[in-house]
Specification:
By secondary structure, this protein is α+β, with helices and mostly antiparallel strands. The chain folds into four domains: 52 residues, no CATH class; 136 residues, no CATH class; 101 residues, no CATH class; 110 residues, no CATH class. Helices cover 42% and strands 18% of the residues. The chain has a five-stranded mixed β-sheet with strand order 7-8-9-13-12, with helices on one face. The protein has a four-stranded antiparallel β-sheet with strand order 3-4-5-6, with no helix packed on it. Helix 8 packs across helix 10 and helix 9 crosses helix 10. The N and C termini lie far apart (90 Å). The N terminus is likely disordered.
């Protein structure tokens, strides 16, 4: 490079991030420049020269601190302590952004090492050749699931990891010059950010759109229920819906919803809560659409299945629960708390008052709504009002029908000829309202066709 007729040498500083040195060919004259926010600024005193003046070298001090953090991160990676490793890498990066004194080379190397050994658990994996799906599956299987099922892991630390890692990957690429590491970290950030929108690969490769047709007594009833997924998903969901229609209360809900337009689709990668038998299993949900895993026969992560036998749940029961969310969103009902319902018998009320009193319950996700849909008791933690959805008489006295997951469990078991069924005792967690008896014997007065 020539400046005012003289040749000068321009080089990237090996010690400091975003620092450049302009020097004469004989290195007798040098100028240090710092690039920040699109502008070059001259360092009036080169960092190494601060010692000559007896001043504290902030750059070197912070650089040493960042190096120590990254060295500790490498140690945590070696011993498979994912939370601690990610925390130290992120902290080192935050210090780097503040002081711009760290080694971007070491930061990049440790970041890639974290992805290889903590996410893929394979130090030899070719990150450049991995696709977004492979990254997502490795993250869910090797990082997310082990952490959310680890009772000793701090919940806030886990949330910080899930939030900060994609943000870290997004911003570190701004400091990278080499295209290889930059593309890898960009792809990693993209994969994590799209976990909540990417459907499970098992059901989403080559997706199609199917329409469910309800057939009753050889009569085909067209519905507006759309099934979105691959051939395996469409066939599996259709089979489950046909199982539901074998039960009278299942027929009732399907007939009530046949004019309601909604979609049944695979859950996203962020909904996965279990890995077993070489595949992922996800929890279901319902909103504008139903996210449903037709291959999942267990409620939760399976860790308590031996103690809580009710967690074995046929997919038909699971989908029926989600259909009730859609149903009650269109057909909300009213229930009076147990104490107010009893008091109402002693007080004369006008017809208008009787029709308007009570709590309106729809198909949302509050604990009250979930309790009604599941068929379990619920006590409001603020008002202490009790809604006893587990009692048939309480439901009938409020003028409502016996429609819930637990009622369907009973009738579905009867339809399949079982001599017993398990009632789900709670929705969120066990409390003083949770019944001790969950297994019930069945008797038959009629047979399903």
């Amino acid at each position: 490079m020539r400046i005012k007729g003289r040749f000068v040498r321009v080089s990237l500083s090996k010690e400091y991030v975003n620092c450049y040195v302009i020097a004469s060919p004989d290195n007798r004259h040098a100028l240090s420049l710092h690039f920040k926010e699109g502008r070059f600024r001259q360092l009036t005193v080169p960092p190494h020269g601060l010692y000559k003046y007896g001043q504290q070298n902030v750059f070197l001090k912070q650089r040493s601190r960042i190096k120590n953090l990254l060295d500790e991160a490498e140690h945590e990676i070696k011993y498979k302590r994912v939370l601690e490793a990610a925390h130290r890498i992120n902290k080192a990066f935050q210090e780097h952004k503040k002081y711009e004194a760290g080694s971007i080379h070491q930061l990049t190397r440790v970041s890639l090492d974290f992805i290889k050994k903590s996410v893929f658990r394979d130090g030899k994996v070719d990150l450049a050749a991995t696709d977004v799906t492979a990254i997502q599956e490795a993250w869910v299987k090797n990082v997310r699931l082990p952490l959310i099922t680890n009772m000793k892991a701090d919940e806030d630390d886990i949330k910080e990891l899930f939030t900060e890692v994609p943000i870290y990957c997004k911003y570190i690429v701004k400091y990278l010059h080499k295209p290889g590491p930059k593309k890898i970290l960009e792809k990693f950030a993209l994969a994590l950010n799209e976990l909540s929108t990417t459907p499970m690969a098992l059901y989403s490769v080559n997706p199609k759109t199917g329409q469910y047709n309800l057939v009753l007594d050889k009569t085909r009833i067209a519905t507006k229920i759309v099934i979105l997924g691959n051939d395996l998903f469409i066939a599996s969901v259709t089979r489950v819906l046909n199982d539901i229609k074998q039960v009278p209360m299942g027929q009732k809900i399907l007939l009530a919803l046949h004019e309601k337009a909604f979609t049944i689709q695979p859950p996203t990668m962020s909904a996965i809560d279990r890995y077993a038998d070489g595949r992922f299993y996800a929890k279901n949900s319902a909103g504008g659409a139903i996210a449903f895993d037709p291959g999942n026969f267990i409620v939760g992560d399976g860790s308590t299945i031996k103690m809580e036998l009710w967690r074995h749940r046929d997919p038909a029961i699971a989908l029926y629960h989600e259909l009730l969310h859609i149903y009650y969103n269109s057909n909300p009902v009213k229930f009076k708390p147990v104490d107010k319902k009893s008091a109402a018998k002693e007080i004369k009320k006008t017809k208008e008052t009787q029709e308007t009193e009570g709590t309106t319950i729809a198909g949302g996700w509050s604990e009250l709504e979930e309790a009604m849909i599941t068929g379990v008791s619920f006590k409001d933690p603020i008002t202490n009002e009790l809604y006893d959805f587990i009692e048939d008489n309480y439901i009938k006295e409020n003028g409502q029908e016996l429609i819930s997951e637990n009622h369907f469990r009973k009738e579905y078991a009867r339809m399949r000829g079982s001599d017993h069924y398990y009632r789900r005792p709670y929705y969120v967690k066990s409390d003083e309202l949770t019944p001790k008896q969950i297994k019930f014997r069945l008797t038959y007065s009629y047979k399903y066709r």
